User: What shape does this take?
Amino acid sequence: MAVSAPDSDAHRLTASGEPPESDWRSQLRALLSVVGSGCIEPTAYDTAWVARVPHREFPDRPAFPQALEWLVAHQHADGSWGTRLNYYHDRVISTLSAALTLARWKERADRGAWEDRIEAAQRAMRRDAAGMPSDPYDTIGFELILPALLDEARRFGLDAPYDAFATDRGVARMREAKLKRIPPELIYTRHISTIFSAEFLGDELDVERVNGLQDENGSIASSPSATAYVLLKDPDNLAARDYLAGVLARSGGAAPAVDPIDVFEPAWTLYNVSQVWPDASRIASAIEPHIAVLAGELQRKNGAGYNSYFAVPDLDGTSMVFRALTWAGAAPEPALLAQFEEDDHFRCFPYERNPSISAHVHLLDALRAAPPFPDRERMVRKVLSFLDRSRTLRTFWFDKWHASPYYTTAHAITALREDADLTADAVYWIVNTQNEDGSWGYYATSTAEETAYCVQALVTYGRDRPASPRMPLSGASPELRDAIRRGVDYLVSSAERIDCRYTPLWLAKSLYSPKWVVHSTVLSALALAESF
Assistant: This one.
């Protein structure tokens, strides 16, 4: 099956004797010129925190009225805030944060209108709280942040379903267990990631100690919500004010989940680019600036995080940066990967409650891309064992960094190309869960992002895959080729792709969408399918 991009001239040869790039490849190459800008769609959760901050000289006015206006304009018809998907942790934490912001400022607006909004939000929280057990993972810091927000809601007299929140999945117990894992003296240090969710400290914040953790850009862990929280406690923190003003200027008056993402964005984009150009020399000039950024990150931190400011390296970022550098011809030190090893798995962050499955997938990719070293095969076996026992229904994979199993499963199929026994059932699951219109979407909503992951996975799996009684799906299988064709047709006509506005699926303190990362996934899927 050869799927041509619109207006493709792939039938002609260039002076070098090779066909020119298709439109999809050209778009993917062109995208590399804007990657690094850190483009993330705003979230209601973070915008609500920023909208709370009072003006420094006139504390009865918001410092960032545009954030408050955005928040009011983005309440859903059912009274909630958050993503359009039925991901209930996102809805609950976003709605509670937004309702508290309106409660703080309601005397500044038409009281009746805002009271109606707050009442609608309370009804939405009661409804969405009942759905939380169906979510595969909590949002980041949920067990720490929610109790602090509930304490504040009580002070404002909000009618939140406190009993349901307190008992669902034992949120209070989870908070206690999480804090017991963390030595108290580490909370105000750069050695762990907890400060990203600084707002969980509520009224217990030590302003002096937390200001010592402020990054060069004025943020607290590059989190707009955590930075706004600290600014509420320390109104004279001008660096924090400047950071938030810059964030809003870049994001149209609202706040994203994190800013910047100058490591995460290029590393994940290059992952998608490398699927299309396995030989990095074919695209060397376009990737060179990004490779330099990633190499600098690895050198500074002895690992990689989600951006250049955050001091804590993690397994996922380190693996993806390691893989990108290896693909580009560098030779990073394998000890960078080994530093995350535990007895029966690899940790992503210190003191985490559960390991990241997608980080193990990316670690496997990095290990197999690296030149041989003494511990490589032992580490690979440990990763394979972890992935084997981490499958949902012994078929596919979820992860705590992404709401959709299609993300982790598709990346696993690519990383496990040498271990088809682990992925055969996952491929069947992908083919059998495709929607009538050619799309995929785990939450009863079709998305271009999930569809792109599935197309990537099926193309990768189908390349030169011989059929067998155990694995009858192969590159020659009509079922697999038809699934790819229908997925491509959906992506070509997708309004999300055309408008470059994607449904939030990534898990931070609420769901968010890293636009260029997702767009590179879609373009990569379309380019891969052309040559299949």
